[in-house]
Amino acid sequence: MARTYDEQAASLHYSHDAMRGWQRCVKRVTDFVCALLGILLLLPVFIAIAIVLKLQKNGPVIFSQERIGYQGRPFTIYKFRTLSTVVEDEGPQLIARSDSVKSTQFERWLREHHIDELPQLWNVLRGDMSLVGPRPERKYYINQIMEHNHDYVLIYQMRPGLTSEATIYNGYTDTMEKMLKRLDMDIRYLENRTLGLDLKIILSTIYGLLVKDGIK
Q: What's the pTM?
């Protein structure tokens, strides 16, 4: 029988969450307000993207997938679909393929600029995710990561996020080496996170997307 999150955590060296209770409350309220405002302000953009994707007839507008989140609970994550359903039905892949046969130019543009992730504001509003936190992973890959490092269970102390230091500096995790590096960075974030650090990560993400060449 699979062990529960509490049983797994008890078997590991405890990693201290540096964020105090009142800060976590402020973080959650901020997440809710920002997600709600973002959805309302970007609603015309959502509609425009949905219309274009629908007209391209490459699959459904929204792509959903089960991920593992806070306290090891599964939840459904939402994105604008940027691959044909043929590719996305082939099973777990470390990184989305972007060949021209399976994706249109518009779909590749959405993915390259991370605009496909905007529907995750709904996940933030619901409380599945946070603005800042470790990227949510599929159980399939979590099992593989834990074969190398059982400390992954420490990530369950946090809500997964839209962005993180690992997202900015480690990029897409298309290899196991990058996955393990991301895990180390996420645990370091857990042990040092504050509201100020979250703000710094958000500003760095915006800078990377708008000023530099984007987050890889």
A: 0.85
Amino acid at 152: Y
Residue with token string 């708008």: 210
Give residue 59's Cα distance to chain centre: 22
Distances in Å between the Cα of 18 and the Cα atoms of 24, 190, 204 are 10, 6, 21
Compute mean pLDDT per 10 residues along the chain, 216 residues long, and list them.
48 71 96 98 97 92 96 96 64 52 85 93 98 96 94 95 90 86 95 96 90 60
Rounded to 10 degrees, the C-alpha dihedral 14/71/178/106 comes to -160
Cβ neighbours of residue 34 closer than 8 Å, sequence gap 6 or more: 124, 131
Nearest-CA neighbor of 67 among 2, 160, 162? 160
Taking the C-alpha atoms of residue 209 and residue 18, their distance in angstroms, rounded to an integer, is 28
Tell which residue, 103, 88, 87, has the closest CA to residue 138.
Answer: 88
CB atoms within 10 A of CB 93: 13
End-to-end CA distance of the chain: 39
Amino acid at 207: Y
Contact by Cβ (8 Å): 95, 174: yes
**Which phi and psi angles does 156 have, rounded to 5°?**
-70, -5
d(CA 46, CA 120): 12
Q: What is the DSSP string of 143-154?
A: HHHHHH-GGGGG
**Residue indicated by tokens 């042990």:** 191
